[in-house]
Amino acid sequence: xxxxxxxxxxxxxxxxxxxxxxxxxxxxxxxxxxxxxxxxxxxxxxxxxxxxxxxxxxxxxxxxxxxxxxxxxxxxxxxxxxxxxxxxxxxxxxxxxxxxxxxxxxxxxxxxxxxxxxxxxxxxxxxxxxxxxxxxxxxxxxxxxxxxxxxxxxxxxxxxxxxxxxxxxxxxxxxxxxxx
Length: 180
Prior knowledge:
By secondary structure, the chain is mainly alpha-helical. α2 packs antiparallel against α5, α3 runs antiparallel to α6 and α4 packs parallel to α6. It has one domain: Vanadium-containing Chloroperoxidase, domain 1 (Up-down Bundle). About 3% of the residues have low confidence. The protein contains six helices and two strands, in the order ααααααββ.
């Protein structure tokens, strides 16, 4: 079931990216790819670690980020630079990338998140410096902020072992709970 689910998600993501790859610059295409790969990697890590709690936290932060980003886009309706359409603020690509990077940092540790944050920063840069100039720096900063904050609300650190105090009915002690 897990393999089938992952295969379907992969096909959907590839179908979303491929048509854009023919129409945009290499920088924008790379940004488009990274904005999907970073949260997909964070989500995939929950399967790799057999982390059901983390998967639930990822869902909550991902969909909160998605909802907040689009609510702001439609509420503010800021035009894109150089008349390239509407709904510029905040950058959805950047919010998705930073949501994934922040999930990795908070759940699995900052060391694992360094490549993800570098990739997320590249996504932000690609939205400002790409040939079609889709956003300005304020849009990108706001997108990063929404992605980071939406993840902070729901994500707790992953722990293989937990030391738990016990105090019940006159019994006091320490319990150690772990995954085997």
